[in-house]
Design goal:
Elements: H1 27-42, E1 47-49, E2 59-62, E3 79-89, E4 93-98, E5 108-115, E6 117-123, E7 129-135, H2 136-149, E8 165-166, H3 167-174, H4 178-184, E9 189-193
Antiparallel strand pairs: 1-2, 2-3, 3-6, 4-5, 5-8, 6-7, 7-9
């Protein structure tokens, strides 16, 4: 188990260019994936990208897990995205509150508008190419982590800075609200391997 420090917003390493993975058998890749998964789970996150742990390659992981407020049918398995590329985004957008491990010290949440549905192509840890079409919390976390690979934090996409809030207020007022729940609902989760 290797828990890594999560860089906090403002750290210049979050803005460095990220390099594509060329060797899928490299022990360094296997180690960074293991570190990502361990760090994500330890910090209670549903996704994390390599730049957040101070390295710079095109890799992120997602895992919306079952929680007291997220039922089993709204979860997803652990997914590894290597050299990802979003290929389609719906014209329909939705606003939902997001947080991030990179603002963990500030524990901030804010409203972010994103496409409701996306299609992403990537490679898994075995080097197999896949395409994932998704929406809801899964589509949102994929877009959020993909942004990290472009050097973008969610704070750059907040629609109304007057609505920034603390973690405790988010839990009390927003997390289980009708609009947040509806926006987070996964209705599409189609995967295709090439």
């Amino acid at each position: 188990m290797a828990i890594r420090e999560t860089l906090q917003i403002g750290d210049p390493r979050l803005k460095l260019p990220n390099k594509p993975i060329e060797n899928f058998d490299a022990s360094a890749l296997k180690q960074v994936i293991e570190d990502l998964v361990d760090t994500m789970r330890k910090n209670g996150l549903i996704g994390i990208a390599v730049p957040q742990i101070g390295e710079n390659s095109l890799v992120f992981v997602t895992e919306p897990r079952k929680t007291p407020t997220r039922p089993a049918d709204q979860t997803d398995e652990l997914r590894i995205f290597i050299n990802p590329k979003i290929t389609e985004m719906s014209s329909r957008e939705a606003v939902a509150y997001e947080g991030c491990g990179c603002v963990a010290n500030g524990q901030l949440f804010g409203p972010v508008k994103r496409p409701k549905k996306i299609t992403i192509e990537a490679y898994d840890q075995e080097g197999k190419k896949f395409q994932l079409r998704c929406d809801g919390i899964l589509g949102r976390v994929v877009q959020h982590e993909y942004d990290h690979l472009q050097g973008i934090e969610f704070t750059e996409k907040i629609t109304d800075y007057k609505k920034l809030m603390s973690f405790s207020f988010y839990i009390a007022e927003i997390k289980n609200s009708k609009s947040q729940t509806e926006t987070s609902l996964i209705t599409v989760k189609d995967i295709l391997y090439f």
